[in-house]
Amino acid sequence: MKKNLSIALGIFLVIIILTVCLLSFIYMPHEPNEMNISQKFLKPGVNSEYILGTDNFGRDILSRIMYGSRNVLLVGIGSVSLGTFIGIILGAIAAINNKLLSAVIMRIMDGLMAFPGILLALMLVTVVGRGIKGSVIAISIFMVPVFSRLVYSMILDTENLLYIKAARSYGSSNLTIFMRHYIPAMLPRLVTQFSSAIGSAVMIETSLSFLGLGIQPPFASWGLMLSESRQFFLNYPYLAVAPGIAIIMTVLGFILIGDGLNDMLIHRRSDDE
Amino acid sequence: MLKYVLNRVKSSLVILLVVSMITFFVLMIIPGNPAQLILGTDATAEAIEDLRIAMGLDRPYYQQYLGWLLDLLKFDLGTSYIYGEAVTSLIIRAIPVTFSIAVFAMLIATITALFFGILSAVKKDSIIDYFSRSIMQLGTAIPSFWIGMVFIVYFGLRLKWFPISGFVPISSSFAGFLKSIALPAIVLAIGETGTLLRIVRSSMLDSLKQDYMDAARIKGLNKWKIYMKYALRGALIAPVTIIGMQFAKLAGGTVVVETIFALPGIGRLVLTAVERRDIVLLQGLVMFITTTVIFITLMVDLLIMTINPRIKSVERGE
Amino acid sequence: MNETVVLKNLHIKDGKNTLVSNTSLTIEKGDIYGLVGESGSGKTLTAKAIINLLPEGLKFTADEINVAGKNILKASQNEVTMYIGKNAGYIPQNTVFFLHPMIKIKNQIADGYVHHMKRSKAEGLKISLQLLDMVGFENPESILNFYPWQLSGGMRQRVNIAMALMNNPAFIIADEPTTALDSTVQKQVMELFKKINGDTGISILLISHDLSLIKHYCLKIGVMYAGQIVESGYSKDIFENPKHPYTQLLIKMMPTMNIKKNEPIPEIKGFVPEKGRDSQGCLFKERCPFAMDVCGISVKEHNDSGHYYRCNLY
Predict the structure, then answer these.
(1) What is the CATH code for A2-21+63-272?
(2) C-alpha distance from residue B213 to each of C90, C124, C152 (Å)
(3) Per residue in A47-73, pLDDT tens?
(4) I want to staple A209 with a disulfide (CB 3.0 to 4.6 A). Which of A7, A117, A224, B71 is the partner?
(5) Is the minimum CB–CB distance between C152 and chain B shorter than 8 Å?
(6) A123 and chain B: CB distance < 8 Å anywhere?
(7) Reduced to 3 states, what is the DSSP secondary structure of residue C23?
(8) What are the structural domains, with CATH classification, of chain B?
(9) pTM (whole model) above 0.90
(10) Chains B and A share 3 or more Cβ pairs within 8 Å
(11) How far apart are CA C20 and CA C41, in angstroms?
């Protein structure tokens, strides 16, 4: 009951964010970068044209939040997809192939896992450069060891399952067995991990933008909006409310879905026993 | 047992070696000439080339790597371009700051997570359980920079309870020291408590099902004595591992929090190195941080081996 | 007051599923009472109901549960915990995690004593030394400094026995106390129970699936099947003149020393039913060689001067 509630809440939050993002392609109240100094620092609700108010340049906060959702979701979903893809391939190669290659891949994964928090992302941003491309590459490499380890251990766990042995005895190729048998068997846990990973990716992306290493001004990004609001925050605290809530909703949404799915998986496994 | 220790030490060293390769070669492919960065755009091509050779950047990559590795073993991390100072001494100066906030953050997180985690497990599916888990989950989803900004304005600027930036060394004033790290530590703790609470709760639930709980119950002991002495003792292994990992992560620098609170710690150095593309400084910092993480993880594993007789009894084949 | 334990009409349910029904037993002072049956027959649950140790989620009802002169059904939960902790002991089947693996023996053995007798830990340890000596340890002091995993299964079980005896309880439950031990250690542990019973007059509820063990050590026995006691009384009466077909079959398949090689060991066909234990009929019907139609509807209870059995054959 509670597990379903957490998934339901998660899906609800994610749907809101996705809707906002899709809507931004069709309609935004203002051009997100349009400055209107005469209208600067409007509080939310004062002017019906600027529902969430305006920032220090008189830019419409609602439009910037809507526009920012594109970047957050693009980087979040894009980097995790890329990381998952590479992770699955590396994990599968390590699990199926010979000892040396497997050892090399897995030691590199161990090495990547030893970089705490956003350090790896920071190092990669230094190399690739700031902006969307840098963020996507940095975060996707951050995600690779997570997924390759998962896939690696799941394949080793299922190696002895009867139907896979059977498929091998028919002479199916490694690739066929992988696509037909392993992927479906691994899908539930991959989806679970995928959802939680998007939560972390969004958190990293907003941190990078906040530090000025992600999307560059004047383009809108939630982390950047918070960073820009810092110097005016004492007098205009509302500047930080909308981007903060947007980040929390997005991160929480994906984490809740991941947690709920995870609880369901554990439940299912213990029912099987 | 000795074999286990040696194996753990060996695999830590392998990871460290892998990390050094990743760090060196990733930062090697960076665009831009370090010599140019140092001398600036006004320098002549000749001067840049001379410096490049002087820095050994014309050698093949593997030679540069081996040279760098040898220097690492001598604790020589090179000289920072931007500070013109040895990276080691920059790091040594930053350690107390980062280490203090990491210790206090983990203290706060551990106490909170133990309190609510035990309560949640003992009162499973009650309002308390539901409430504490929800709050903590929310805590993991709140960005530290956001909560940091709120704290600065509310506790720092409005109420003026705490300074909003800078670090007071413990040697100059203990109260000042505590005040200067309180807010950053709390902000960090908010992010770490949720994960820890979840682990405490699930290990407690597991421990509550063990036979020794029957033994404790039949003795007719006070309920909380049973929980604290028997259940908690059996539930500590996983949380200790997580606390170790979290502490290692925080001790490796907390870029965001150190930035918001303008603390001159390791994280602040990392951000400066990234912003100004000081490759030598960044390489040195990354190696220092990953070594710290790997070392703390190793220590925690060994600690757990000594507090967990089960590992030993499994090794004896029981 | 001559009975240490009186249990009347116990029912245990897991949600809607009945696990134990209509179970009554009486253990007299100084007796060793044997409860025998296949696994899943409800022996352990019955014993745990007496000492208030049923797993969470199980609900029980009974007309009376009297332990050492006190009907614990009429006491508050806290009183029961205190009372049972002081007056009863429990010795488990599996010795591995009954003692807390991460706590030294000396830091857990005297907990109950210190709590109930309001004594210092030093006094508790003094008593534990005496008891460890009594259960046959030659060097009790060093045992106290061990972690449980440093002891063998037989040693752990003797520590468990000493721990159960700390408060000088009126009765102890030994739940398959020798199952996990090898046969020479089994014998030592059982002889220890007999000695303790002889020396202190403590009542023992011995649970086992091993009929020969029960026959050898118990004055009175109860045979459990599918959550009911189907036959009970003096051990002598039951072994000489078993009434219930289940008891008869059990006795018939008791392994004897003179089974010839390759001779098939007899077995009772079928399984202990998990469901339908709330039926008014005989639960052994499906496996009984003498089953009649009436057995599905009701079952007659007999009591021949203390020899109780429930069967329609008589």
Answers:
(1) 1.10.3720.10
(2) 12, 20, 21
(3) 777 777 777 777 888 888 888 898 899
(4) A224
(5) no
(6) yes
(7) strand
(8) 2-73 (no CATH), 96-316 (1.10.3720.10)
(9) no
(10) yes
(11) 8
